[in-house]
Amino acid sequence: MLLYKIFFTMNFFQNIQSFLLIIILLFSFVNCQNIPNPRSQQTSSLIGNRLYFFSGDLSTTDSHNDSASNVTNEVWYLDLSSSFNTATPPWRKDVGMPIGYNLGASCVSPIDNSVFLVGGRMYIPNTANINLGSSPVYVFNSNISLWTTPNIIGFNSSFKMRNQIQPVIDNYGKIYTFGGTNYTGFNASYVDYNDMNILDTTSMTWSTLAIYTNAPPTFVSYTATLLPTGIIVYIGGYKDTLTRSIQTFNTKNYNWSTKVAGGDNIGTRVSHSAVLTQNGEIIIYGGSIWNDTTKPATPYIAKLDTSSWMWSIPNLSQINSPQLCDHSATLYGDYMIIAFGQIPSKSSMSYASLSNNLYILDVKSYILVTSFNPNQTLPPNKSTTNQTPSPDNNLNNYLIIGIGVAVGIVLLGGFSVVGFLLYKKQNQYPKFIPTPGTTDRI
Ligand SMILES: *[C@@H]1O[C@H](CO)[C@@H](O)[C@H](O)[C@H]1NC(C)=O
Ligand SMILES: *[C@@H]1O[C@H](CO)[C@@H](O)[C@H](O)[C@H]1NC(C)=O
Ligand SMILES: *[C@@H]1O[C@H](CO)[C@@H](O)[C@H](O)[C@H]1NC(C)=O
Ligand SMILES: *[C@@H]1O[C@H](CO)[C@@H](O)[C@H](O)[C@H]1NC(C)=O
Ligand SMILES: *[C@@H]1O[C@H](CO)[C@@H](O)[C@H](O)[C@H]1NC(C)=O
Question: What residues does the Attractin/MKLN-like beta-propeller domain cover (predicted)?
Fold first, then answer.
């Protein structure tokens, strides 16, 4: 009897051990599930201390083939209030969007912190099928993880499915969206635009500005950055000019003007990202050259001083620096957080290499850091995060958060004549043939 008891106890402990082992295995399995798949063309926004990433294309077969898209509705976020290592970011999944979504952009209302996803291509999730019943705007309340669609007064139906755009929101809750295209697939007719659409989120009214004589031509896949002065700076996009002449739009008087930037030579780019620093510098990162998405933009990092309109190229070490397009970039204190995207040197017509990596660039020293420490980048007591610099509180604020999202790519997906010609040219290029040894993935 005693012997039996001893046996029983041993068995019991062994059972407990295996039970624990199973629990641990299950837990790590669940943990593995908690890493987002590589993706590109997502959009991101900082809401308080949470950095959100909305949707994107998961397709690993051919990012330029619209019928091979796999557009997700997933929403992921990172909590930036505690430290982590870039190798193991603390990913959390939130309630997914009602639709699959890419090539649009999100902006956070300075009034109530709700997120507006404006324009973009909308799909039946995890398919390449456009969702014809989608709303032009989706709103996310991150406090209660709730998605809603607003009733917009005077919506201009030509804006439906408008993509490869970057809206910006001002401190009064007005969202400005320039141009874009309603291209959604090979067989549908589409139009490229150079209009300015404004959504006043306080009254949910829509207006389309008449096209001014000095408005830029149609362009897509640009970045838009709102300065504290109320001026929106447009950089890059599909237009055959160097980044030297920069289009700006004044949200105070609705005037367009062109700034001719000096300083270093900056090559053309699309599908790059841009963030605004507290010193009034716009840092652009990544992208590909405007007429060949397989070639990374050069230099792949540059900064524009928006008081002198001078470009300079930071001395960022080329080694270990990722080259990405259709990624996201967000400034949090002195950290530029770069995430997801496509590696342009591999983004040939037949094969796209996507990333789910996270890179953190310290924009004071231009060094890539592997550990994120909120106390090192923010003063301890100041927790106000101001995503959209306003005329009133901007440059004095210790923390101005610039958000940039690389928008668009899709060499085949845009702009009429140019797009078609490029497509023909692109097809003549040797296709990238992936072999086990050829990886420049970092
Ligand atoms: C899309 O991606 C998801 C996640 O990787 C996968 O489960 C699904 O099968 C994919 N769908 C298609 C149509 O490729
Ligand atoms: C784009 O807009 C034009 C004009 O409104 C329309 O004729 C066309 O069908 C639209 N294309 C798509 C793909 O929605
Ligand atoms: C809607 O947008 C189109 C394209 O920019 C423009 O031509 C049209 O005038 C706009 N309609 C209104 C009512 O503003
Ligand atoms: C891309 O455009 C530049 C001019 O901006 C031109 O010199 C170059 O040949 C073009 N490349 C291709 C692949 O068309
Ligand atoms: C980068 O380094 C070079 C020489 O090492 C120097 O001449 C240049 O001014 C530096 N640029 C910046 C932006 O610091």
Answer: 134-365
| Nearest atom in ligand 3 to 208's CA | 14
Provide the whole-model pTM: 0.81
Contact criterion met (CB below 8 Å) for 257 and 275: no
The owner of tokens 């992936």 is: 434
Q: Which residues contact 33 (CB under 8 A, 6 or more apart)?
A: none
The DSSP result for 319-387, as a single string, is TT----BS-EEEEETTEEEEE--B-GGG--SS---BB--EEEEETTTTEEESEE-HHHHS-TT----BS
Single-letter residue type at 83: S
Distance from the alpha carbon of residue 268 to the mean position of ligand 4, in angstroms: 10
Closest residue by Cα to atom 14, ligand 4, is 291
Between the alpha carbon of residue 253 and those of residues 107, 306, 436, the distances in Å are 22, 19, 56
Q: Is 174 exposed, middle or buried (0-12, 13-18, 19+ CB in 10 A)?
A: middle
| Element at 74 (helix H, strand E) | strand 71-79
CA of 439 to the centre of ligand 2 (A): 40
Q: Does the CB atom of residue 191 touch ligand 2 within 6 A?
A: yes
Residues near ligand 3 (Cβ within 6 A): 156, 158, 193, 195, 208
CATH topology of domain 40-388: Neuraminidase (2.120.10)
Tens digit of each residue's pLDDT, the chain (442 residues):
444 444 444 455 555 555 555 554 444 444 456 999 999 999 999 999 999 999 999 988 766 677 888 999 999 999 999 999 999 999 999 999 999 999 999 999 999 999 999 999 999 999 999 999 999 999 999 999 999 999 999 999 999 999 999 999 999 999 999 999 999 887 788 999 999 999 999 999 999 997 766 778 778 899 999 999 999 999 999 875 666 789 999 999 999 999 999 999 999 999 999 999 999 999 999 999 988 888 899 998 999 999 999 999 998 865 567 889 999 999 999 999 999 999 887 655 556 689 999 999 999 999 999 999 998 876 544 333 333 333 333 332 333 333 333 433 322 222 333 333 333 333 222 222 222 322 222 2
Place of tokens 């690389």: 406
10 Å Cβ neighbour count for 271? Answer: 35
Q: Are strands 262-263 and 310-312 parallel, antiparallel or unpaired?
A: parallel
Residue nearest to atom 7 of ligand 1 (CA): 126
Q: Decide the pairing of beta strands 273-276 and 115-118.
A: unpaired
Q: Whose CA is nearest to atom 14 of ligand 3?
A: 208
- Ligand 2: distance of its center to the CA of 97 in Å? 24
